[in-house]
Design brief:
The protein has 245 residues and is α/β, with parallel strands linked by helices. The protein has 2 domains: 177 residues, 3-Layer(aba) Sandwich (Rossmann fold), CATH 3.40.50; 61 residues, S-adenosyl-L-methionine-dependent methyltransferases (Single Sheet). It is built from 6 helices and 11 strands. The strands form 2 sheets. A 7-stranded mixed β-sheet has the order 3-2-1-4-5-11-10, with helices on both faces. Strands 6-7-8-9 form a 4-stranded antiparallel β-sheet, with no helix packed on it. α5 crosses α6. The chain starts with 12 loop residues before the first helix and ends with a strand. Bound molecules: S-adenosylmethionine. S-adenosylmethionine (SAM) binds next to loops. The site of S-adenosylmethionine has 20 residues, from loops.
Length: 245
């Protein structure tokens, strides 16, 4: 499924999620990646790299290669990170034929809505992680901490403005997916403000499933709690996999 936010609306993405909002988390991901696995920690592959907002910070610490399945998002990221290699690919099956010291899958892994897809994405991370290296997985939610809610935000540039409502709800009865309804108000110069809406379906898995799948794929898994300044303490859990030598 092609989402408007990552295709026809991709050029608006930096007004919804600005690079400057990623400094705290990119520093955290960079530190965890640098200290996990053995040396060197020089090359980094990010799968589902989107607008490249984390890469903007991480490229100071790693040689970063970015993979996303949406060409329009790769174009946004290429403007922000012109020195990084950008490659079109799906995190479930892309194979670049080379390995990296570290692999990151940030919020894009939340688009894995079945265990089979989640396993395929983690297997892609494993296939690209050298022995002794490490991978970090950062889902938006795990089942234990999921809370419905709404958020809003947005900003302006010289000509355009975007405001959004992000409504997280509708845990499915099996508890493996939830929905995020996005409403985007878009102002382009003097044109009338227009409204776009779309629903994103996201995956939701318990901690035990994450740890099991990461281990089954071949990594040694650990939980990492990130007490981000904008989130209640203890509610944002990430998963690290180190690849045995
Ligand atoms: C929220 S954006 C990521 C933003 C990114 N964390 C950043 O800092 O700029 C989610 C991205 O996941 C990508 N994505 C979703 N499913 C994917 C898949 N199966 N393979 C690769 N990319 C995928 C989308 O194209 C989109 O660019």
């Amino acid at each position: 499924m092609t989402m408007k936010l990552y295709s026809e609306l991709a050029a608006w993405y930096p007004l919804l999620d600005a690079p400057c909002e990623h400094a705290e988390e990119a520093a955290f991901y960079g530190d965890r990646l640098a200290e996990s696995g053995d040396d060197p920690a020089r090359t980094l592959l990010e799968l589902g790299s989107g607008a490249g907002n984390n890469a903007m910070y991480l490229k100071d610490r790693f040689d970063v290669t970015l993979v996303d399945r949406a060409p329009a998002m790769l174009a946004v990221s290429s403007e922000l990170n012109p020195g990084c290699e950008h490659i079109a690919g799906d995190m479930r099956d892309v194979r670049l034929g080379r390995s990296f010291d570290r692999v990151l899958i940030h919020d894009a892994i939340s688009y894995m809505t079945t265990e089979a897809d989640l396993r395929a994405a983690i297997a892609t991370a494993y296939a690209h992680c050298r022995p002794g290296g490490a991978a970090l997985f950062a889902p938006d939610h795990i089942l234990e901490h999921f809370q419905p809610g709404a958020a809003h935000g947005g900003r302006d540039d010289d000509r355009r403005g975007l405001r959004y409502l992000e409504w997280t709800h509708e845990l499915d009865p099996a508890g493996t997916t939830y929905s995020v309804d996005f409403a985007y108000l878009l102002r382009d110069g003097d044109l009338p403000v227009r409204l776009e809406h779309e629903r994103h379906r996201m995956g939701l898995f318990p901690r035990a499933a994450w740890l099991r799948i990461i281990e089954e794929v071949g990594f040694r898994p650990t939980v990492v709690v990130f007490n981000h300044s904008e989130l209640p303490p203890g509610t944002y859990e990430l998963f690290l996999g180190t690849r045995p030598r």
